[in-house]
Design a protein that fits this description.
This protein is an alpha/beta fold. It has 10 helices and 7 strands. Helix content is 49%, strand content 14%. The chain has a 7-stranded mixed sheet, sandwiched between helices.
Length: 278
C-alpha cells in the first residue's frame, strides 16, 4: 500500500510539475547554462525560482521560515553557511528568497539532468574534490563570486556532503569552507535546515512535508577576523545544531497532527520515542 501511494504521488507530481520543468528546461535553463553572461542575473534567477517553486508546490512542501528580516539588515554581499540534508535543500532556499542565491556544489552535480543546468544558470561553482589543481582555481572563482556584486549571494554547505542521518547532530563543518568568507571579507549568515530529506525520498509518504528554515543574524568580518576559521566553524555548527533540536520538537508536533496511521507517525519521527495518542 505504501509503495502504491508513493507511486501515485510521483505520478501526480509529474503531471503537476513535469510540464513546467520541461518547458523551462528547454526554453530557458538550457540556454542560460550555456551562456549565462548573455542574460541578466535577475531574469535567470526569476525563471529558476518559478520552476523550483513549482516543484515545492507539487510535493506539497510546507515551509516554516524564520529570520528573513536578518537578510534585509545587511547591505551588499553575504555568504550563507548551511547544514546539508538533501538535494532538495537548494530548491527550498531558492523558492524562499527573492534576492538571487547560488551554490557551491560537487562537480558531479553538473551531470544531473536539469539540476546541472540550473546550477550553471545561476553562476554556481562546481568543486572537483578529486583534483587539487582544479580545486585551487575553483576556490579563486568561488571567492570572486562571493565578493563580486554582479553575482548572486553564495551558499556553502559546510559539512561538505549530505548528512544521511538527519536525526543526528550536524557533521563536522569544514573550516576551509568558512575560510572563504575571510578571503572575501564578507558577512556570514548561518542557515538551519530541517525536514528536507523526506521530500524526494521514496521511504516517506506524508500528506504534506514540513520543512523548517532559519536565517541567523549576520556575523560581520569585524566580529570574526580575530578568531580562527576552525573556531568560527565550530561556533556556527553549534548554533545550527541548537536550531535543529528546536525544529525536531516542532516537527514532531506537525507530524502527529497529520492524519496518518500510528505506525507511519512513529516511522517519521524515529528514533525519537514519544507517546502518540491513539
Amino acid at each position: 500500500m505504501r509503495k502504491a501511494r508513493k507511486l501515485f504521488s510521483y505520478i501526480r507530481i509529474v503531471l503537476e510539475a513535469g510540464p513546467t520543468i520541461l518547458f523551462y528546461h528547454l526554453t530557458k535553463m538550457h540556454k542560460y547554462a550555456k551562456h549565462p553572461e548573455k542574460y541578466p542575473l535577475d531574469i535567470r534567477y526569476k525563471n529558476a525560482r518559478t520552476v523550483l517553486s513549482r516543484i515545492i508546490k507539487a510535493y506539497r512542501v510546507d515551509i516554516h521560515c524564520s529570520g528573513l528580516e536578518n537578510l534585509s539588515n545587511v547591505d551588499g554581499k553575504v555568504m550563507f553557511v548551511s547544514n546539508h540534508l538533501s538535494t532538495a535543500d537548494p530548491v527550498a532556499l531558492v523558492s524562499l528568497l527573492d534576492k538571487p542565491i547560488t551554490f557551491a556544489a560537487k562537480q558531479e552535480t553538473l551531470d544531473m539532468p536539469f539540476v546541472g543546468a540550473v546550477l550553471l544558470a545561476l553562476d554556481g561553482v562546481p568543486l572537483d574534490r578529486g583534483n587539487i589543481m582544479n580545486q585551487l582555481s575553483q576556490i579563486k572563482l568561488l571567492v570572486n563570486t562571493i565578493k563580486s556584486e554582479k553575482y548572486a549571494n553564495v551558499c556553502i554547505f559546510a559539512e561538505g556532503t549530505r548528512n544521511k542521518e538527519p536525526k543526528n547532530p550536524c557533521l563536522e563543518f569544514h573550516a576551509g569552507s568558512i575560510k572563504m568568507a575571510y578571503m572575501a571579507n564578507t558577512p556570514i549568515i548561518p542557515i538551519t535546515l530541517y525536514g528536507t530529506w523526506r521530500i524526494f525520498s521514496a521511504k516517506h509518504f506524508l500528506r504534506k512535508y514540513p520543512v523548517y528554515v532559519d536565517f541567523g543574524k549576520p556575523i560581520y568580518p569585524s566580529e570574526y577576523k580575530n578568531i580562527s576559521s576552525v573556531e568560527l566553524s565550530d561556533k556556527l555548527r553549534h548554533q545550527i545544531d541548537q536550531n535543529v533540536n528546536r525544529f525536531r520538537l516542532l516537527d514532531k508536533k506537525e507530524i502527529c497532527a497529520q492524519r496518518l496511521t500510528k505506525k507511519r507517525k512513529l516511522y517519521e519521527i524515529e528514533p525519537d520515542n514519544i507517546k502518540l495518542s491513539s
